[in-house]
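ok so I'm stuck.
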Amino acid sequence: MAGKAGRSADDAARMPLMEHIRELRSRLIKSALALVVAGIVGFVFYRHIVNILETPICDIKGVHGVGTPNKDCKNGVLVLVGVSAGITLAFKIAMFSGIVLAAPVWMYQMWAFLAPGLYKNEKKYGLTFVGAAIPLFAAGAALCYVFFPTILRVLMGFVPSGVAAQLPLDQTLVFFLRMMVVFGASFVLPLILVLFNFLGVLSGDRMRRHWRVVVLAIFVFAAIAVPTGDPIGMSVLAIPICVLYFGAIGIALANDKRRAARRAADPIHQLSPDEASSLDLNPLPVEHASSLEDIS
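replied:
not stuck anymore, here's the structure
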């Protein structure tokens, strides 16, 4: 007797409610175990992770803190307040590290739970989306890592001369990680538009016609997301997103042109199971007519 491993996608899509709940519970347990294991790894190596994250902050010139400058933090602006601040920071780093390191596992579990309810072409586009989203998110996070010292340099420029600055390490690193998430997620947004186009939800012509509104919205979002509020910081985030958006328009227009050409050659090509094909209502010629009397 075939077990669950041999169950087909159609059988999985027709599972009863309780079976879906059991499937969801199994996926959540596996994801939670992966998060715990990855979190333990992050807790063990949290000092190395902190050193990587604090380097752009400690290399900022023109400011000084109350801490003693050393080879690890040259300006001494990072501090920890409280007896339990160190262990709290370790758990925070472990939590963020666990989410990042276990991302392939929990993303796969989420995909495996949703995939049986998707059509074949939707599964193909979804896997491509996941494969392209990871490097785009990493590129956005890397851009934030490179540009973050400039953001802090502008913010620290408001500190009066002769005054020492204190940056709580736990709050600063959490703020840093949130900024990296914002930059990374922003780079994925144009990819979502491409996915909607391939699924037939959004046309490339509509994206092209509304580019002015979208570009304005991107710059407004960048002005809000970057805390410095200066035009340079806003442009560092907005310009790459605009480039990706126009690239998404080009891909969407090419896909619409390809889809139109294939439908012109075959009207029922790539129709979903829920979409009705066109009917030929022209009557065929009757070659041999017979009356009802002849039939009887």
